[in-house]
Design goal:
two-stranded antiparallel sheet; 4 helices; elongated
Length: 139
């Protein structure tokens, strides 16, 4: 019977991660988003470094791989929970997006006059003196 120590187990885990991330990389190339492709590429590099550290007995590489693995798993759990709308993550994301939209709308310079079209010399809204002070909104 064979004996598999911790080193052998870590080599097996790194090999399985490489197979899975390469498969996911293939499917990400079929899409149009580049952020997952770059993240997968970084993950492949770190897994290879972890595999190298395991084979060559480099504790610094193994520690870096362990820290990266914790961050990677945490991020993936967050993404899974976000897309499955588990807990209040969708409400939090909706709130953050709503704050962003309100910020973008409040910073926009809109001088459209619905009667006469674009009017650059007509109505000028109140000037902002401070971002902390509330300003009335005229409609």
């Amino acid at each position: 019977m064979g004996y598999c120590n911790g080193r052998c187990t870590l080599i097996f885990i790194c090999g399985m991660q490489l197979v899975c991330v390469l498969e996911r990389q293939i499917f990400d190339f079929l899409g149009y988003q580049w952020a997952p492709i770059l993240a997968n590429f970084v993950h492949i590099i770190i897994v290879i470094l972890g595999l190298f550290g395991t084979i060559q007995y480099r504790p610094r590489y193994i520690k870096g791989y362990a820290v990266w693995l914790v961050l990677w798993v945490t991020w993936n759990v967050f993404v899974i929970c976000f897309y499955l709308e588990a807990g209040d993550l969708s409400k939090l994301a909706g709130f953050i997006y709503a704050c962003y939209v309100v910020k973008c709308i409040s910073e926009e310079e809109d001088s459209f006059d619905f009667i006469g079209g674009f009017d650059s010399y007509g109505y000028q809204g109140p000037q902002k003196t401070s971002h902390l002070q509330l300003q009335p909104m005229y409609m």
